[in-house]
Amino acid sequence: AALLVINGPNINMLGVREPSIYGTHDYHYLERLCQKAAREAGFATCEVFQSNHEGDIVDKIQEALGAFDGIVINPAAYTHTSVAILDALKAVALPAVEVHISQVDQREGFRRISFVRLACFETVAGLGLEGYAKAIRDLAAHIGLG
Ligand code: DQA
């Protein structure tokens, strides 16, 4: 099975951006964490994609149809604004898990709203980068890997 991990805007700034919220590990560390978790969960392949551009994320989700078996997505700030990303996830109808590094429910009020959540079977938030590993394991179980 093939896994696609999608990260939205500013996730490439991990380690630099607000380390008290997002930690001190960099984006490369996150990529390796996802690769390892995917391997251990039984995925044959794992692509880790990042973009700061909403339309590029929509394109990537559309291209996932027929190419990937599931999606783990941290849409970052687009979580709270993007009907386009929600609609793309609904269009391809691949099993998807929403991840947030921080505890989005305990921050500013605007971070409590998630459009993308409506197309995901689970949300993982507030576990730091380890949340990606949990999301990947839960996706594997959901599609019957292992
Ligand atoms: C985030 C939470 C979002 O509110 C924020 O805009 C991000 C990262 C998280 O992983 O905690 O960029 O998705």
Structural write-up:
There is one protein chain. The chain is 36% helix and 18% strand. The chain has one domain (2-142): Dehydroquinase, class II (Rossmann fold, 3-Layer(aba) Sandwich). It is α/β, with parallel strands linked by helices. The model has no long low-confidence stretch (mean pLDDT 98). It binds 1,3,4-trihydroxy-5-OXO-cyclohexanecarboxylic acid. The site of 1,3,4-trihydroxy-5-OXO-cyclohexanecarboxylic acid has 10 residues, from loops.
Give a brief rundown of this model.
With 146 residues, this protein is an alpha/beta fold. The chain is 36% helix and 18% strand. 1,3,4-trihydroxy-5-OXO-cyclohexanecarboxylic acid binds next to loops.
Name some characteristics of this structure.
binds 1,3,4-trihydroxy-5-OXO-cyclohexanecarboxylic acid; 5 strands; five-stranded parallel beta sheet; single chain; Rossmann fold; alpha/beta; 5 helices; 146 residues
Which helices and strands appear, and what pairs or packs with what?
Elements: E1 2-7, H1 19-22, H2 27-41, E2 45-50, H3 54-64, E3 70-74, H4 83-92, E4 96-100, E5 122-125, H5 130-142
Parallel strand pairs: 1-2, 1-3, 3-4, 4-5
Helix pairs in contact: 2-5, 3-4
The structure holds 1,3,4-trihydroxy-5-OXO-cyclohexanecarboxylic acid.
Protein name: 3-dehydroquinate dehydratase
GO molecular function: 3-dehydroquinate dehydratase activity
Subunit structure: Homododecamer.
